[in-house]
Structures are given as structure tokens and as C-alpha cells.
Amino acid sequence: MMSIAEILKDEAIRTYLHRLIRDEGLDLLEKFPEEGEYSDEELAEKTGINLNSVRHTLYTLYEKRLAEYRRLKNTETGWLTYLWTLRLDRVPGAVMEDMKMMLEKLEARENFEEENDFYLCKTCGTFTFNEVMELDFACPRCTQPVEHFDNEALLSALKRRISAIRECLGYE
Asked: What angle do CA 26, 28, 33 make, to 5 degrees?
């Protein structure tokens, strides 16, 4: 299995993780001990990173299945201790899941853009035909006249982005 340092050398993975956990999170990963399980308190002490930042990073990674924990209960006090390990070997799968989710959102936006006719108020923004038709093509917010908005450039950009993601996912 690759070390954390080796994984973080990959610029795409580093960028993905930075988007998730920001600078302090990457700092924690770089200082995370290679072997064993550690409590959040131990990690904060070993790395010199604020305990709340350590916890936030671990929970964020856990949500993406990039960290796991084992829970221990102290029989005398009843307190729970969580011992954490990283699973950065799962980063490619997490990236793929995020790309699939992004693809769904972009395709939904593409459909919306294709199925609607848009009008622009220079003050308040863009509205659909149905929103302005009943108001005699006036802005629903400020009542100023609206102008037709050509969304072809946006649609073209969406199609390029969708195509690139589909290609990365091996769909095309």
C-alpha cells in the first residue's frame, strides 16, 4: 500500500483532498503517523494541530469513507474513545462518486437550460418565460422590462463539461 506522502504527491488527489479538508486538513494528513490507530486527542498532540480542526478533518474524511474509526468503551467511566485510521486508498473511488454526482447535476441543469426560454432583468437576474409571461414581460421583483436571454454559450459550456466528465468516467 502507498504511503500518505506518496498519495499526496499526486497533484489531482492533493487538489481533491484540499477541496474537502483545506490547508489544515492536508497538514494533518502530512503529519498523520503511518501505522496504527490514534484518537483525535493523540493526533492533535502528535501533529500540533488544533483538536477541533483534527476532528473536523476526520469527520469530513469519514463521510467520504477515507477514514475509519474503531470505538472503545471504558468500562469504568463509560466514556467512548474513537481510534482513527486513514483509508486514502479509497480516494479514486471517492473521486469517481463525486464525478458521477456532478454529472447528474450538470445533466439536470442542461435539461433545464434546453427546456426553458430565458429573460434577463439587468438588475435582478434571469427568469424563465413562464415567470415573466404573466407579468407582461416585466421583472417579477422590480417590474422593469426584461429582455430575451440567449443561453447558447452556457449550454455549450455545459455540454463540453458533461462530455469531459463522461469521458473521464469511461461512459463515452
From this structure: 125
Residue 15's alpha-carbon distances to 2, 26, 54, 154, 171, in angstroms, are 18, 10, 19, 26, 24
Burial of 37 (0-12, 13-18, 19+ CB in 10 A): middle
Amino acid identity for residue 115 in this structure: E
Distinct helix (H) and strand (E) counts, the chain: 7, 5
Question: Which domains does the chain possess?
Answer: 4-86 (1.10.10.10), 93-168 (no CATH)
Look up residue 145 and give its three cell numbers: 422590462
pLDDT computed for residue 133 by the predictor: 95
Find residue 110's DSSP bridge partners: none
**Phi/psi of residue 69, each to 5°?**
-135, 160
Distance of alpha carbon 151 from alpha carbon 15, whole angstroms: 31
Instruction: Give, to the nearest 10 degrees, the angle between helix 40-47 and helix 11-31.
Output: 90
CA distances from 147 to 116, 139, 150 (A): 15, 10, 10
What is residue 22's DSSP assignment?
H
pTM of the full structure: 0.80
Residue 172 has pLDDT above 80, yes or no: no
Cell triple for 11: 497533484
